[in-house]
């Protein structure tokens, strides 16, 4: 589900990270209404939810510290409020 690196990627710049991913394929009876974005400072988690029901497959994180690595995963949320499993993890390093 998360296609960071393939669909624009994870780009660190002046204290922000822009995440982009590919929306999952539409399936009959299952409409995606948004995405939850999670972050950790440790690979593999634990992850803390940064944003809920982000409407588009793009998110900017501005709450960053210099010299840190951050790890991100995303989930899809459907119209019934069900959340998918975590996407693949991606990393951003803030200089």
Features of the shown structure:
95 residues; mainly beta; Immunoglobulin-like; four-stranded antiparallel sheet; three-stranded antiparallel sheet; disordered N terminus
What layout of secondary structure does this protein have?
Blueprint: E1 11-13, E2 16-20, E3 32-40, E4 48-54, E5 58-61, E6 69-78, E7 90-93
Antiparallel strand pairs: 1-2, 2-5, 3-4, 3-6, 6-7
What does this structure look like?
The protein has strands at 11-13, 16-20, 32-40, 48-54, 58-61, 69-78, 90-93. It is mainly β. It has a four-stranded antiparallel beta sheet with strand order 4-3-6-7, with no helix packed on it. Strands 1-2-5 form a three-stranded antiparallel beta sheet, with no helix packed on it. Mean pLDDT is 85; it is low at 1-8.
CATH architecture: Sandwich
Annotation, overall tally of beta strands: 7
CATH fold name: Immunoglobulin-like
What general form does the structure show? elongated
Low-confidence stretches: 1-8
Proportion of beta-strand residues: 35-45%
The CATH homologous superfamily name equals: Immunoglobulins
Number of domains in the coordinates? 1
Oligomer: single chain
Helix count equals 0
Write out the strand line-up for the largest beta sheet, numbering strands in chain order. 4-3-6-7
- By secondary-structure content and strand pairing, the structural class works out as mainly beta
Radius of gyration: 13 Å
């Amino acid at each position: 589900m998360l296609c960071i690196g393939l669909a624009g990627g994870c780009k660190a710049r002046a204290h922000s990270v822009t995440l982009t991913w590919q929306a999952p394929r539409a399936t009959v009876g299952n409409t995606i209404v948004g995405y939850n974005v999670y972050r950790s400072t440790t690979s593999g988690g634990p992850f803390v939810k940064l944003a809920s029901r982000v409407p588009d497959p793009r998110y900017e994180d501005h709450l960053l510290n210099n010299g840190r690595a951050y790890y991100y995963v995303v989930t899809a949320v459907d119209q019934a409020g069900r959340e998918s499993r975590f996407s693949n993890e991606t990393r951003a390093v803030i200089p």
